[in-house]
Write a structure and sequence with these properties.
44% helix; globular
Length: 230
């Protein structure tokens, strides 16, 4: 199954023309697989496969949570967007839970005006459901408050707020937490996650799963050329 997914993904990358087929021919399957969970099933299958290749358990015991605010395209409904006052970004807030390898466990898309706690409460719920309770610890930054820790405790997840060293100037990666920043950077190599074009937050989440599926499908097949190389 893994070989089939990697082979199909590689074939599509190499042989599809740069101009996609008509929207109706592609969006039908995007929406169908988004709604029935096929996108997450394929993504999680590859994630577990890669973890096992690294001699790790299929599901992690520790996750790192963080959020990123991104601009939205013109035409995205105002009712699903907002303004992140702290980062001065109008658009949507994307919350990720990743393992120590930087692989995405789950994602949540909210209006950028939503507090960090909103993502911090939604993510542990999804993590617990996806990993069937294997996660016992989560690392977060100071943007998340005690409500997140209390909610995590109710799920059996110890939420550890990693405080920034006050003497640090500018951006300084924090031990273990840096992997989520790396994952956000990797997502930026894919056009759709750079700016949120989706009318539905669920579509925004699906775009992240597909972007990471593309990333993960290259790792078992390192000889597959990237579109940036060709």
């Amino acid at each position: 199954m893994i070989a089939w997914i990697c082979g199909v993904t590689a074939s599509l990358r190499v042989h599809l023309p740069h101009d996609l087929p008509p929207k109706g021919a592609t969006y039908y399957y995007f929406a169908k697989w988004r709604d029935d969970g096929t996108d997450k099933t394929i993504h999680d299958l590859l994630r577990r496969h890669l973890r096992e290749k690294k001699k790790r358990l299929a599901d992690p015991g520790l996750v790192v949570l963080d959020t990123q605010s991104v601009h939205v395209a013109a035409g995205v409904p105002a009712g699903t967007t907002g303004r992140d006052v702290a980062k001065k970004v109008p658009g949507r807030k994307r919350g990720l839970a990743v393992d120590v390898l930087g692989l995405v466990i789950t994602v949540v898309a909210l209006a950028a005006s939503a507090h960090e706690n909103a993502a911090g409460i939604a993510l542990p719920d999804r993590v617990a459901a996806v990993t069937e309770g294997s996660v016992t610890k989560a690392l977060v930054d100071q943007g998340f408050k005690n409500a997140v820790a209390a909610h995590g405790a109710g799920l059996g997840i110890d939420v550890d707020i990693v405080e920034r060293n006050r003497s640090d100037k500018g951006f300084v990666p924090q031990p273990k937490r840096w992997v989520v920043e790396q994952t956000y950077g990797i997502l930026m190599f894919h056009r759709r996650p750079v700016r949120d074009y989706e009318h539905l937050p669920s579509s925004s989440e699906s775009r992240v799963y597909w972007a990471m599926t593309d990333v993960m499908s290259r790792r078992p097949t390192p000889s597959t050329p990237s579109w940036r190389w060709t």
